[in-house]
Amino acid sequence: MDTRTLSNDDVESIWSINEQGLPGTGQVSKQELRDLLAISDFSLGAFKEEELLGFVLCLSPGTTYGSPNYAWFNDHFDAFVYVDRIAVSKDKRNQGIGTLLYERVVSYAQENSIPVAAEVNLNPPNPGSMRFHHRFRFEEVGIVHHKEKSVTMLMRNTTKSP
C-alpha cells in the first residue's frame, strides 16, 4: 500500500468512498469535494496500485470553508490541522488503512507543532469513530448541537505519541 497527495483526478473515487461512509462522513457533491481539495492543506490517499482504498482531507484555520464544525474550531483555537473527513472503502475496512492515514496526519501536525482537530457524531452516534479517536488520544474539547445532529469536538495534542 502506498500513500500520496490527492488530486482532482481522484475526486470520483473520493466521492464514492465518502458516500460509503455516510452519515459519518457527511454528504457532499463531487464539486464540493473538488472545492474542499483545493483549500486542503493536507490531503492524502492510501492506494493499492491505482485503487484508492481510503483518504483524509485536512484544513488549517482561516479558510473559506463553510462547515459550522470547522467554524467552531476557528472560533476557539488559533492553530490546528482540522480533519474534515477520513473514510475507508467499505470492503477495505479493519485493515489498518484509517490508522495509517491518521498516523500521517499526526506526523504532519507534529512537524508543524500544531494539534489535530476533529469531530465525531454523538447523535446519530458513531461509536466506531469514537473508539478510533480515543485510541489516538483525542480529548473532548466541546459539544455542538445542530438541528438534526450533535457532535463532540476533539483535539489531539501532538506532543503525545500515536
Provide a concise account of the structure shown.
This protein has 162 residues and is an alpha+beta fold.
Keywords:
33% helix, Aminopeptidase, globular, 162 residues
Written overview of the protein:
The chain is an alpha+beta fold and 162 residues long. It has a single domain, classed as 3-Layer(aba) Sandwich (Aminopeptidase), CATH 3.40.630. 33% of the residues lie in helices and 31% in strands. It contains 5 helices and 7 strands. Strands 1-2-3-4-5-7-6 form a 7-stranded mixed β-sheet, with helices on both faces. Strand 6 and strand 7 form a beta hairpin. The longest helix has 15 residues. The radius of gyration is 15 Å and the shape is globular. The model has no long low-confidence stretch (mean pLDDT 92).
Say how many strands there are: 7
Q: Give, in order, the helices and strands.
A: EHHEEHEHEHEE
- Determine the number of helices (DSSP H or I, runs of at least 4 residues): 5
Described by strand count, sense and barrel closure, the largest sheet is: 7 strands, mixed
Strand order of the largest sheet: 1-2-3-4-5-7-6
Determine Rg (CA atoms, Å).
Answer: 15 Å
CATH class: Alpha Beta
Through-space gap between termini: 20 Å
CATH architectural type: 3-Layer(aba) Sandwich
Shape: globular
The CATH superfamily is known as: Gcn5-related N-acetyltransferase (GNAT)
Structural class by SSE content? alpha+beta
